[in-house]
UniProtKB/TrEMBL annotation:
InterPro entries: LRR_dom_sf. It comes from Hibiscus trionum. This is Uncharacterized protein. SUPFAM superfamilies: L domain-like (SSF52058). It comes from the Eukaryota.
Length: 162
């Protein structure tokens, strides 16, 4: 059990199965973290470097609230996480990595933008639940998303949009 973010820097995390840092204090997450057994990670207000995910082969659930101090966070390296099943993102605008997450079954996004989102979602063949409620979309996305949903409606169990 880790009692504070300082434990991330001082303790061995190899046996950890879950990390949860949900306080409102801004913090920098270690650049490289070796957690081969980690399955759940919930982070709020963390500056995360994409490389930290490379040592997390068993990660299944990831929840991130991003855009700390206006600094964008790149999640390109999530493509190396082969077991990721559920992803919840808040305040992320760059979703160009999303189509690489072939095992993703649940995707929840709270944010704005959406340029290229439909194209990335189209690549997620295992997607069962899509939650886009409370997201702000650019012009034209609603029409695109409707066509997209009609294409994959057979595989989706749940779809939320507002």
């Amino acid at each position: 059990m880790i009692k504070s973010r300082f434990g991330l820097l001082n303790d061995s995390l190899e046996p950890c199965k879950a990390i949860s840092l949900l306080d409102n204090e801004s913090k920098k997450f270690p650049e490289k973290l070796v957690c081969p057994k980690l399955e759940f990670m919930l982070l709020n207000n963390c500056v995360v470097q994409g490389l930290c995910f490379q040592g997390m082969q068993e990660l299944k659930v990831l929840s991130l609230r991003g855009e700390v101090s206006g600094r964008p966070i790149s999640l390109y390296h999530l493509k190396f996480v082969r077991n990721l099943r559920s992803l919840h993102l808040e305040y992320f605008e760059d979703l160009s990595f999303l189509g690489n997450l072939r095992t993703l079954e649940v995707f929840s996004w709270r944010g704005s933008g959406s340029e290229g989102l439909a194209d990335e979602l189209r690549k997620l063949e295992n997607l069962k639940m899509l939650d886009l409620a409370y997201s702000r979309f650019s012009d034209g996305f609603v029409e695109i998303s409707y066509k997209f949903v009609m294409l994959i409606v057979r595989q989706l169990v749940s779809f939320y949009i507002s």
